[in-house]
Amino acid sequence: LSAPPLSAPPGAPFLPGLSAPPAPADDELEGMVGGSATMREVFAQARRVAPSEATLLILGEGGTGKETLARAMHRLSPRRHRPFVPVYCEAIPETRIEGELFGCERGALPGAHTARAGLCEAAEGGTLLLNDVAELPTRVQARLLRFLQTGEVRRVGASRARHVDVRLIATTHRDLVQRVRDGSFLSDLYFRLRLHEIRLPPLRQRPGDAVRIAESLLRRHAWAMAQAPLTLSAEARAAVAAAPWPGNVRELENAVHRAIVLAERGEIAPAHLGLDASSPPPVPPADALEAEPPSDSLEGYFRRFVLEHQAALTETEIARRLGISRKTLWERRQRLGIPRARS
């Protein structure tokens, strides 16, 4: 999706094989769509901070577009023609993360048959993105802090350090202040990361943006396929606007992709999106309502969604609909005390 004229704008919400013309400038940032007041402020803040060389911390719930925003800011920076290297901290085993980030010399780690550079060096001159930075082990946090302080990395097993010119952006959905309090995240690293901080609001706090994003995705599909765009019916627009979207933009993108496949042409109905235009959400069982979080909180939405769908959907399907991983689904079940349905 790189060659004009059918290339998607950088950072555009992704649908496999789809691309489109850019959205109106006042409602977008490098392909990110958002006309609500909260997102306009996020876009303005991002434009101010993008040219800076300082580290940046992007906060927000899962699926709000933290990595997409990081990519947009890289493209708006003086480093745009240099590498953008994303690292998914949660996905790398604890025994490998140090070598992956900082590199290692031959024989310094199991399986290290040759010396190799780490991802910090791979990002030379560009931007290093640490997704889920809160998941880093404490010893790796200490090495990361030293890297930020000195601009140097020392490969595992090496005797000398190497200077690396990298801008660091970190993201997390965790409460880092609480992590600092409980000792699982270094306070010095926290303050070093948040020289600049941008907080992405959840989709439920972005009035009108769910419909804007859905319609933008439909326009992108039409542009790619050189055909008249699918449209949302009045009922579908109302359903999209009213849905809580606990998985945020990621969940909405999945729903629109599903609707494009099912509707084929013409008008999209709520059913194509997996939404119900008429029936109110079922009330959870009485024993599930004890200590339930407020209905307008993410936890409240998450609890209701899981309890309503776990009898009919597998854990993998529930996680996909929410736009999260199975691991995250399991963690939230444990934290909120939501038992799995007995088969």
TrEMBL record:
Work out whether the entry's keyword set contains tRNA-binding: no
Source organism of the structure: Sorangium cellulosum
Q: Which GO terms describe its molecular function?
A: ATP binding; DNA binding
Q: Enumerate the UniProt keywords alphabetically.
A: ATP-binding, DNA-binding, Nucleotide-binding, Transcription, Transcription regulation
Domain (Sigma-54 factor interaction): residue spans on this chain: 32-261
Residue ranges for the region (Disordered) are 1-25, 273-293
Q: Quote the protein name from its UniProt record.
A: Fis family transcriptional regulator
Q: Where is the composition biased (Pro residues)?
A: 1-24
Which GO biological process entries does UniProt record here?
regulation of DNA-templated transcription
User: Which PROSITE patterns is this protein grouped with?
Assistant: SIGMA54_INTERACT_3 (PS00688), SIGMA54_INTERACT_4 (PS50045)
Q: What domain of life does the UniProt record list for this protein's source?
A: Bacteria
